[in-house]
Amino acid sequence: MYTKKPTIPENVIERAYKGKCTKEDALLLLEGNPFELFELANDLRAIAAGDTVSYVVNRNIYITNKCVGNCGFCAYRTEKGYILSIEEILKKAGDARKAGAVEVCVQGGYTPEADMEFYLEVIESLKAEYPGLCLHALSPMEVNYAAETSGMSVEEALRRLKKSGLDSLTGTSAEILSDRVRKIICPSKISTQQWIDTVTAAHKAGISTNATIMYGHVETLKERLDHVFTIREIQKETGGFTELIPMSFLPYNNPVGEKMLASGKFSSTGLEDLQLIAISRVILHTYVKNIQATWVKLGKKLAQVALQCGANDLGGTLMEDQISTASGGSHGEYVSPAEFEWMIKGAGRVPVQRDTLYRKIESGFPGQEGLFPGYAKAGMGSKE
Fold first, then answer.
1. Longest Cα–Cα distance in the chain
2. From CA 217, how far away is CA 276, in angstroms rounded?
């Protein structure tokens, strides 16, 4: 008969429950029995979020695939691509609204053709046409680049975005908040400090953001942990993060991934994915309430398991995820609300629809079960 022998010291557990996990504690937890870490993270999840698991009915809108950056992990950008017109963007938002979406996530690149005035027009047009939609848009990188192109400060750009109707800024372009790593994978992107300064300024301007971490490439374990602790320090100051989204690196069709694959490394393992979700819950306990298990990176079944390891959110229906699929993502681009409900109940939890800011949304939007053009009604991520 197997007898469970706890290996986590009591003082480490005590600090975790108080929201005082140290870097030494985090390393110790990761070096120990992973199932004890998962159990601890699951307990902290229950304290923070109860038995509910949230998701949002949303759509990604990719304004452009043109980008002058040189990120070594990107398989999506091109210097000769498209830029959607305002009419095309509104059409995509309208299709999403008909399908029951409460959020559109507007993503761009950084190109001189998309300056701050263009982004402001996009936000204002969307808000005027669909005032009930939450607008979750742009990254700290895009704000920095477009502000510079338009000759304004980041702070002024954020104030104008807020006034135009932006509800939430994305926390992407964080990758790993280590300048050593950034010089390797995204040398032309904003620095660690610029990312910190931008999201801090957004929070102070009244714009919430999520936080992301893209892991499983050239970073060390210490750099992963430093990233999560940095998120905690920002949250202590501003309280502006709605969630943390751990995103595993996809190694296909990009230069960083090609080197990894040649060396015999095939991205992070499923166990690593679950450990990062769990340790993030422990580190961020009492600070960031929501930890997302992103199905488009993990797959639906591992995302369900992550709900037992500290996660309490499954992200969005998406309806479109060109970036992940370009990098070899194979888990589809759409999950229907009905399938989310099935996944969550199958994990023994209570499903709750939310908006971008984690406000509860009553279910039952007309048309949400498959009216989005081009997608199967079963919501299994396949196109007709």
1. 70
2. 14
Locus of tokens 């230069």: 255
Short-list 200, 208, 184, 153, CA closest to 70: 184
Each residue's pLDDT tens digit, 36-95:
999 999 999 999 999 999 999 999 999 987 666 555 455 445 566 788 999 999 999 999
Listed residue (107, 357, 335, 72) closest to 214, CA to CA: 72
- Residue ranges per domain, the chain? 21-361
Which pLDDT tens digit goes with each residue over 283-335? 999 999 999 999 999 999 999 999 999 999 999 998 754 433 433 334 446 89
Give the H or E element holding residue 59: strand 58-62
Q: Is the pTM of this model over 0.70?
A: yes
Q: In the chain, how many H helices and how many E strands? A: 16, 11
Domain 21-361: state its class: alpha beta
